[in-house]
């Protein structure tokens, strides 16, 4: 049983070294890993083996979100993101969910879809019959190139057909190979499998295969997270808990019915999701593609979350989206900080990782719509903006907070004012 608590009050007030020490104890990090955290982890030589034409490295901030409790277990979330406020906001939202007992999550089996496009089929109906008749043989063939995934209980499990009659190319048949990728994202295994069975499909259909590639609309591999926030935990200086619940539900429905709002609503969700995806070395373009395609599945782009008031008057939220993530393979295997992130999370399977990431998306969404439905987001953003202006104006590290606070109190958050304050402080200290 995990007795550790991710509820770490005032974590944000500690120094980088103090925070690192907390995480070191949490995840039993080695000295080598601590050094990797400080210098970005990847060497130019490693980077040169990851992609082509490498000339250097590009660092991003690596942070920890606190307060997450998922299925009665506490987690610290590694997040890699360049945008201010995201980590503070998600930690605060996770604390609110914690007051309602934390997140309950679940996920589908890790089933991916590989697509094979068949054209120039002499007889469409016969081709469909032939594929159905030879299904078991096709699956067997696909699994001969499955490697360790098949040995681990995964591999090709089914075939589905998507006929597109009378396209501008004539009759087009799309074969979906359903493939259990176990703990991998699985792009390589599934692409190998669809390429391998393509000639066999040409033979039995008499057609010509064009594309053979996985689909990023991984709607058979979804993760789900749900949680409740007691209404009284949402009350603030100007609104009762009941009023905040109502405003958040109204904000949720706005995103469900209006694609213009849904795009921004889902962008906020992806702030949380992408940061954990990047920290764990997963492919965020794949996750983004899947999320937005899923949000548009009904023909109109909509919200990935749903918010409602339960019978006790409390706020409930739920998220559902495709999350094809791996804990082996790709950059997860190569990047030392991706390995370190997985160690901080302590995940044992790709499904557990997907469920944590779904919870992160729901928490980030709560943070954004709560701010929007109450004070507006500028109040918090301007605080970070004031700090950035102080830095841009040349403030010394020890003066940044003071200059930012002065500008906030004056209601004058501008670069010119920051420069004046820098000069003023320099004068006082000289
Ligand atoms: P890898 O091929 O690097 O890793 C997966 C492999 O790891 C498996 O095939 C298996 O290989 C091995 N493995 C070891 N342990 C396990 C386990 N417990 N469960 C499952 N497999 C295990 O990466 P992926 O196939 O996951 O592909 C991810 C990469 O593909 C990402 O970098 C992504 O950017 C990229 N990609 C994405 C595309 C897209 O999204 N459209 C398209 C093409 C690539 P073995 O049998 O050899 O042991």
Q: Walk across the major sheet and give the strand order.
A: 3-8-10-9
CATH domain class of the largest domain: Alpha Beta
| Helix and strand sequence | HHHEEHEEHHHEEHEEHHHEEHHHHHH
Number of strands: 10
Q: Report the CATH superfamily of the largest domain.
A: 3-hydroxy-3-methylglutaryl-coenzyme A Reductase, Chain A, domain 2
The average pLDDT score comes to: 95
Give the overall form: globular
Q: Please report which band the strand proportion falls in: under 5%, 5-15%, 15-25%, 25-35%, 35-45% or over 45%.
A: 15-25%
Helix percentage range: 40-55%
How would a crystallographer describe the biggest sheet?
4 strands, antiparallel
Q: What molecules are bound to this protein?
A: NADPH dihydro-nicotinamide-adenine-dinucleotide phosphate
Number of helices, counting only DSSP H or I runs of 4 residues or more: 17
CATH architecture classification name of the largest domain: Alpha-Beta Complex
Question: Roughly how many Å is the radius of gyration?
Answer: 25 Å
Say what the CATH topology of the largest domain is. Answer: 3-hydroxy-3-methylglutaryl-coenzyme A Reductase, Chain A, domain 2
N-to-C CA distance: 57 Å
Tally the structural domains.
3
List the uncertain runs: none
How does the helix and strand content classify structurally?
alpha+beta
Structural overview:
The protein has three domains: 11-106 and 233-376, 3-hydroxy-3-methylglutaryl-coenzyme A Reductase, Chain A, domain 2; 111-214, Alpha-Beta Plaits (2-Layer Sandwich), CATH 3.30.70; 379-429, Helicase, Ruva Protein, domain 3 (Orthogonal Bundle), CATH 1.10.8. The protein is built from 17 helices and ten strands. The protein has helices spanning 16-27, 31-39, 44-50, 86-99, 124-133, 135-143, 147-151, 187-205, 241-257, 259-279, 284-295, 330-334, 336-345, 350-373, 378-392, 400-410, 415-429, and strands at 62-70, 73-80, 104-107, 111-119, 155-167, 170-180, 208-214, 222-229, 305-309, 315-322. The strands form three sheets. The protein has a four-stranded antiparallel β-sheet with strand order 3-8-10-9. Strands 5-6-4-7 form a four-stranded antiparallel β-sheet, covered by helices on one side. The model has no long low-confidence stretch (mean pLDDT 95). By secondary structure, the protein is α+β, with helices and mostly antiparallel strands. Helix 4 packs across helix 14 (350-373), helix 9 (241-257) crosses helix 14 (350-373) and helix 10 crosses helix 14. 50% of the residues lie in helices and 19% in strands. NADPH dihydro-nicotinamide-adenine-dinucleotide phosphate binds at residues 147-149, 152, 181-189, 214, 216, 283, 286, 326, 328-331.
